[in-house]
Design a protein that fits this description.
EC number: 1.2.1.38
CATH superfamily of the largest domain: Dihydrodipicolinate Reductase, domain 2
Structural class: alpha/beta
Enzyme class: oxidoreductase
Bound molecules: NADPH dihydro-nicotinamide-adenine-dinucleotide phosphate, N-acetyl-L-glutamyl 5-phosphate
CATH topology of the largest domain: Dihydrodipicolinate Reductase, domain 2
CATH architecture of the largest domain: 2-Layer Sandwich
Strand content: 15-25%
Protein name: N-acetyl-gamma-glutamyl-phosphate reductase
Pathway: Amino-acid biosynthesis; L-arginine biosynthesis; N(2)-acetyl-L-ornithine from L-glutamate: step 3/4
Catalytic activity: N-acetyl-L-glutamate 5-semialdehyde + phosphate + NADP(+) = N-acetyl-L-glutamyl 5-phosphate + NADPH + H(+)
Low-confidence stretches: none
Oligomer: single chain
Radius of gyration: 20 Å
């Protein structure tokens, strides 16, 4: 059994890790931290976990975490980077759900996250954990930087086009919408039901911290520096991201092979579903599931390919993808614990 620790177990992604790990046959959760809820049984706070976990929250303790085989960090940005060097020395493997190790350019990271990086040596060694791209590197990694939620939906949608060089890489557009759980569980006025309900707005249109992350991943796929306009929106739902993606085809004749290209690219990927051409994937069709579902579109007399890509931000966008990465790192069947279909309706 893999002995797992979770730092940040009261947040939305921490508790989603627990929900999925509750039925994972190869994992025991030996430690789950919260500074504010230390001593409180997990199942008292999250009754959906009653009968699954006997654990109580504890203060983060480096020596307890060092005794784990794998530690998930489900903490705000800036926490993992301070604790990682010690854990790495103990030989523990880590999947960090925050953005601390996602961006290789330290200056770019500091500009977007507003602080200097405190373990730059581990930024270099960390593997950006999108299994559909670098599965073999993840398998060997000691530290995996779990991708952001928007970047997962956006990158998976654009990847086949950029890998094959079929679109103009300098003018990509990603118009993305997220439910409010993407903002985490800590109280923020902008996330109150009274603020989010019956409303719909763009935010970060002049620049969002996921922009450099998307640019880094897609530039690697394209083999050239790409240009992307990314605008996130907040919609009045709890879980889910829909990203509508636009790219200009270099040669319109290639439209005829796009569907086969996408189906071929993801045929052996258990967590990507390419729907028939012209379908409209819904966020509720992936709610609770570790899945990115997508479909292609073309409007008449247009050279633009449109891709609609949906994920559950807490699952394929966070905890599910983190567990997928853990399965890959430990040589387990990649789908272990992640087979459940979505909740619908
Ligand atoms: N929500 C989402 O859809 C997604 C979130 N992420 C990322 O995952 C991470 C967690 O997100 P989310 O679950 O939403 O966040 P929450 O704000 O809901 O939870 C944060 C957790 O971290 C703990 N924590 C906060 N500060 C510290 C600290 N200094 N040391 C140790 N523990 C700390 C908190 O518990 P306590 O304060 O009691 O210790 C809490 O359990 C973030 O980096 C987020 O950006 C990634 C993809 C999607
Ligand atoms: C709706 C909402 O607020 N979404 C968050 C992104 C989700 C998230 O937690 O970002 P990471 O994946 O990088 O950790 C935001 O815009 O900052």
């Amino acid at each position: 059994m893999i002995k797992v620790g979770i730092v940040g177990g009261t947040g939305y992604t921490g508790v989603e890790l627990l929900r999925i790990l509750a039925v994972h046959p190869e994992v025991t959760v030996s430690c789950i931290t919260s500074r504010s809820e230390a001593g409180v049984p997990v199942a008292d706070m999250y009754p959906n976990l009653r009968g699954h976990f006997d654990l109580a929250y504890s203060e983060p303790d480096a020596s307890v975490l060092a005794a784990c085989d794998l530690v998930f960090f489900a903490t705000p940005h800036g926490v993992a980077m301070r604790m990682i060097p010690g854990l790495m020395e103990s030989g523990v493997r880590v999947v960090d759900l925050s953005a601390d190790f996602r961006i290789k350019d330290l200056q770019v990271w500091s500009e977007w996250y507003g602080m200097p990086h405190e373990s730059p040596e581990w930024v270099e060694k960390a593997v950006y954990g999108l299994p559909e791209v670098v599965r073999d590197e993840i398998a060997r990694a000691q530290l995996v930087a779990n991708p952001g939620c928007y970047p997962t939906a956006v990158q998976l949608g654009f990847l086949p086009l950029l890998e094959q060089g079929l679109v103009d890489p300098s003018r990509l557009i990603a118009d993305a919408k997220s439910g409010a759980s993407g903002g985490g569980r800590q109280g923020k006025i902008g996330m109150l039901h009274g603020e989010v309900g019956e409303s719909f707005k763009a935010y970060g249109a002049s620049g969002h911290r996921h922009l450099p992350e998307i640019r880094q991943g897609l530039s690697a796929a394209a083999g050239t520096e790409i240009g992307v306009t990314f605008v996130p929106h907040l919609v009045p739902m709890i879980r889910g991201i829909e990203a509508t993606l636009y790219a200009e085809m270099k040669n319109p004749a290639d439209f005829d092979r796009l569907q086969a290209l996408f189906e071929g690219r993801y045929r052996n990927e258990p967590f990507v579903d390419v729907m028939p051409f012209g379908s409209h994937p819904e966020t509720r069709s992936v709610r609770g599931a570790n899945l990115c579902r997508m479909a292609l579109h073309r409007q008449e007399r247009s050279n633009i390919v449109i891709i609609s890509s949906v994920i559950d931000n807490l699952v394929k966008g966070a905890a599910g993808q983190a567990i997928q990465n853990m399965n890959v790192m430990f040589g387990l069947k990649e789908t272990l614990g992640l087979e459940a279909p979505a909740l619908l309706p």
